[in-house]
Amino acid sequence: MPTAVTQQAVHFIKPRKDTANVETWSRQSIEELFNLPFNDLMFKAQEIHRQHFNPNEVQLSTLLSIKTGGCPEDCGYCPQTVHYDTGVEASKMLDVDEVKAAAIESKKNGASRFCMGAAWREPKDRDIEKVAELIRTVKSLGMEACCTLGMLSASQADTLKDAGLDYYNHNLDTAPELYGDIISTRDYQERLDTLAHVRSAGMNVCSGGIVGMGESRAQRAGLVHQLANLQPYPESVPINNLVQVEGTPLHGTESLDLLEFVRTIAVARITMPTARVRLSAGRQQMGEAIQALCFMAGANSIFYGDKLLTTGNPDWQRDQALLGKLGITTT
Ligand code: SAM
Ligand code: DTB
Ligand code: SF4
Asked: 319 alpha carbon to ligand 2 midpoint, in Å?
């Protein structure tokens, strides 16, 4: 009987407890979650979501690219690298007034967090001083501040924390075994080291990845496995669907079945129960029904505003209309 098999499968999927009494997940148990019948997976994700969050509330973060293009890294998905011809021009860092104006606008439209991204492999110490001023400006407006600036040293992380930075975003991007096919200029361990510096400095960790890069379901499970076993797991987990940009090596990759994207959100929710799971890049290509399924699966944050870093995002009026239709309030 299909029902009995299903119940048995759900029953077997339990987090392991390690000696420090911290829940950890085997990769196999995460793959088993991915392999559940869709309705069982959604039910489980919703149960967990409702234990920890108001299921009808979504957090809004606005992104601003404070330093665009000209990046020396070779990330195969990214329009901002110098390695591929994508038409994105390198530009100088924005000044304080430009950033302040954008933050004021985003707050007026309802965002609670302002995220500043830079196309750097790693910031120089003098860049960190400039970013610290931007952070203080954002904080003075009464918003949460987040940055994504590439790899950080321990002392750079401390400086950002001292300036008031609430979250640092640095993604693991994909499963360890696929990573080297996508990026050659820095390795997985360097990403983990940056997350450790962010954690030690006392900031909230924002880390997730990208799906739709031609990975297998087992490799999507591999990404979640890495994230869910960080101790502690990130407070914020952005799940991006690859935005295919002409000129990048990943342009032309077979698109991911979007129900598989919804599954990834659900598995992230189950394995990282108290994290904000962010339905991130790729919403413009997604349609309302898939986004609604993502919220049902436990996504409770979005990037809000008509631009991500260099690519498009639904404009805020469209998002407000969708959230209104779903009876979702925002924070
Ligand atoms: N340069 C810094 C770094 O790589 O950490 C910060 C900015 S970088 C653009 C931030 C993240 O955006 C990447 O780690 C990746 O996960 C995501 N990203 C970049 N291009 C993307 C694309 N085309 N589609 C989806 N996500 C993308
Ligand atoms: C994240 O995980 N996604 C955002 C944010 N963190 C920095 C970036 C998405 C970038 C999409 C491609 C672009 O707009 O350039
Ligand atoms: Fe540079 Fe970040 Fe793009 Fe990689 S993802 S090329 S590090 S801007």
From this structure: 18
